[in-house]
Amino acid sequence: MQSKLANFQRNGTPAQVQRAKWLRAKHVVQQDVLVLPAPVRKRKQRKTVTVAGSLLTQELLDEIASAQEATRAKRPKRVQKKAPAHLAPTPAAPLVSMVIALPPRMQYE
């Protein structure tokens, strides 16, 4: 009985055949399937900024910031539209515990 079970578990092939199949596939699995991708190299970014060939000073930065604030003030603000009445959230209904009487189980004989 044990020999039949062992034969079923290995699909009727001897253990040496299964081992030989694995040894042939082992190289492919190790080289292609189990390999992690190469680490991504981050490019070194510049730490200085050049604007039109000149250095940025605090006064120049203040001028740029004030110009941006002026353009933001000129833009109209977005108005949020109200949701239609049928989509508006409703107040939560109070929870009521209900007991439902179920019919007794029918017995099939």
The number of E-state strands comes to 0
Biggest sheet record: none
| SSE arrangement, N to C | HHH
- Computed CA radius of gyration, to the nearest angstrom: 38 Å
Report on this structure:
- The protein has 109 residues and is mostly helical.
- It has a domain at 2-38 and 47-72.
- It contains three helices and no strands.
- The mean pLDDT is 72.
Task: Throw out a few tags for this protein.
single chain; mainly alpha
Write the layout of secondary structure elements.
Elements: H1 2-9, H2 15-33, H3 58-74
Question: Short summary of the structure?
Answer:
With about 110 residues, this protein is mainly α. Helices cover about 40% and strands about 0% of the residues. The chain has a domain at about 1-40 and about 45-70.
